[in-house]
Amino acid sequence: MVSTTELTHLTWLYPVYQRITQAFLTGHGHHALLLRTPNDNGGEQFCFTLAQWLLCEHKQAEQACGHCRQCQLFQHQSHPDFYWIAAEKGKKISIESIREVIDKLSRHSQQTAAKVVYIQGVELLTEAAANALLKTLEEPTEHCYFLLQTDIEHQLLATIYSRCQLWTLPQPTLDQAVKWLIEQGFPQSEALQTALTMNYYRPFAAKKSLEEGEVAQRLDFLRQFWKFYRNKNLLMLFPYVQLDNPIPQLNWIEAFLMDTLKCALGIHTGWQCQDLRQGVETLAQQLPALKIYQGLSIIRQMRTDLLTINGVNQELIVVDGLIKIIEEVFEG
């Protein structure tokens, strides 16, 4: 569980949080909130903070008191009336997980009148789990609140939408994201700006990139991709692919090719690879836009295959995709 004391620093989210808490204070709060937000945007921190506020015995406007028994239990990750459901990596949220919580909700609250269910990644519910949840959303028990978080890019069942109050959590402006990262201890630098652009301005993803040195890793890898293009040689790139998890590197190539396509079409805004502008412009001059688009399609298909095909050697998917890029894009 994350700290619930830092939401005021997430200035792009705090105004939404204030509107939601004000609605509850004036008797207009909804029992089921659907919170749409890009991943790594602070949605998890938002939901934990709101959950603690809903459980708090001595709310102070939009702030939980932090001292009552409910806050203490919550902060020690042991509140018996707070239920957090999240899928394991690569899996769906099962109907058994939902049924277990529904059974607990039917009983009396162990602490206060309030119960809070936080489902992180509600788009990962199986169909059976979603249907089981819908029945509870239709007939909620008193003082029971649902916080349903989903990535903004995913589609949900219309029936879930119809039973929830929808809130969209905005992404930060560039200035807000930069300020927050500086507050986390990162110096103002080109690397900080690059970390934000390569992660679509998602602050928590940018923070992870800075902590793990991904900015330099990406630069080194895309330099190898350039050698791969110039030499049309599989061995210029394949040995540098992290076969245990090649998805981030495919995302880096996709961003580079997308900026190249934009450049070829005369679009010079919204680039992710501003730090590689010279390479982008050079490739855009040397390859037709259609070929660049074909390269993008191959990279996206590789990523889809790696994420969805079970039991297939990942090395074969990567090799096949890189050979297609050589034959159909660089040489075709």
Automatic annotation (TrEMBL):
Residues 215-325 form the DNA polymerase III delta subunit C-terminal domain. It holds the Pfam family DNApol3-delta_C. Coiled coil: none annotated. It catalyses: DNA(n) + a 2'-deoxyribonucleoside 5'-triphosphate = DNA(n+1) + diphosphate. Its EC number is 2.7.7.7. It comes from the Bacteria. SUPFAM superfamilies: P-loop containing nucleoside triphosphate hydrolases (SSF52540), post-AAA+ oligomerization domain-like (SSF48019). Keywords: DNA replication, DNA-directed DNA polymerase, Nucleotidyltransferase, Transferase. GO terms for molecular function: DNA-directed DNA polymerase activity. PANTHER family: DNA POLYMERASE III SUBUNIT DELTA (PTHR11669:SF8), REPLICATION FACTOR C / DNA POLYMERASE III GAMMA-TAU SUBUNIT (PTHR11669). NCBIfam families: holB. This is DNA polymerase III subunit delta'. It comes from Gallibacterium trehalosifermentans. The lineage of its organism: Bacteria, Pseudomonadati, Pseudomonadota, Gammaproteobacteria, Pasteurellales. The gene is holB.
